[in-house]
Amino acid sequence: MRSSAGVAREREAAVTALRGKKAVVTGGSRGIGRAVVQRLARDGAEVVFTYASNAGAAGKVEQAVKAAGGTAHAVRADLTEPGAAARLMETAAERLGVLDVLVNNAALEFVPTPLAELDDEVFDRVMAGNARTVFVTLRYAARHMPDGGRVVNISTINTVRSAPGIAPYAASKGAIEQLTLVAAQELGPRGITVNTVSPGATDTDLLRATNPAEALAVAASITPLRRLGEPSDVADVVAFLAGPGGRWVTGQNIRASGGLA
User: Fold this and answer.
1) Residue 58: which of 36, 76, 40 has the closest Cα?
2) Digit-coded pLDDT (tens) for 85-133
3) Which of 5, 120, 231, 238 can pair with 35 through a Cys bridge, CB separation 3.0 to 4.6 Å?
């Protein structure tokens, strides 16, 4: 049995795992992104995170992090715009000085649409907001991240459990998974790990806004753990990969899906 002193040491190690580290999280004002920002800050990192338009939600994240003793800075960025991701990384460098942890979580909201009804503009916009952003930020990491850094890219279980109407979204996330594999090979010699985390159905405002209650019940019922995921479930996996415990894990796609494959 562990002593109370041993438990206390473990807790202290958990909350200081990223002390002094500087992190960037794209899409950090809601849902999984918000949970990731709060968890990395709780572990000691100073975090720059992006939001698309909801300044109020971003401000609440900053306040919550500050109340918990951490530091987070919101940056507005429309990552579908050419040059936006590069400008974000420049802004983060000015604020943080160095990039130790990069979490690519931002994803363009997309209304499921059959292939026959999709136009080029929608496809290009989704690919730009999702895949191009990861490409640009990974390129920045390859050029500027110090040895021993961490990159985590958020994908989706939908790259292996597809569904009608999500072609641009699934394609963009599949591209992210391939970028992860290549970057892990290229950056590995410098001790930089690059991994993908693929959530299953996760209980966020967006999920509930875009799915009827019956669909959510079905999603929970077919998941081995018999529930929807919580944003913190995914954030904990990201924090592991971003911290010292993840030093020997790279080039992997971890399905944080409650066992759904």
Assistant:
1) 76
2) 999 999 999 999 999 999 999 998 778 899 999 999 999 999 999 999 9
3) 231
The catalytic residue positions are 169
Flag whether 261 is in a domain. Answer: no
Number of domains, the chain: 1
- Residue 225 sits in a domain of what CATH number? 3.40.50.720
Residue 203 within a domain? yes
Among residues 185, 155, 175, 173, the alpha carbon closest in space to that of 250 is found at 185
How many Cβ atoms are within 10 Å of 76's Cβ, its own excluded? 15
Backbone angles phi, psi at 39, to 5 degrees: -70, -45
Q: Please check whether residue 132 is in contact with residue 116, taking contact to mean a CB–CB distance below 8 angstroms.
A: no
| Angle between the N-to-C axes of helices 31-42 and 55-67, in degrees from 0 to 180, rounded to the nearest 10 | 30
- Domain with 102 in it: 4-256
Radius of gyration in angstroms for the set of CA atoms belonging to the chain, rounded to a whole number: 18
Is residue 153 within 8 Å of 104, Cβ to Cβ? yes
Q: Are 197 and 237 in contact (CB under 8 A)?
A: yes
200 domain-assigned: yes
**Which two structure tokens, joined as six digits, stand for 122?**
């929608």
Instruction: Choose among 238, 256, 259, 241: nearest CA to 27.
Output: 238
What's 41's DSSP letter?
H
**DSSP secondary structure string for all residues of 149-160:** -EEEEE--GGGT
Q: How far is CA 177 from CA 27, 130, 158, 194, 254, in A?
A: 18, 11, 12, 10, 11
Domain membership of residue 43 (yes or no) is yes
Q: Which residue matches tokens 């599949």? A: 174
Q: How far are the Cα atoms of 151, 180, 182, 236, 240 from residue 190, in angstroms, in the given order?
A: 13, 15, 14, 25, 19
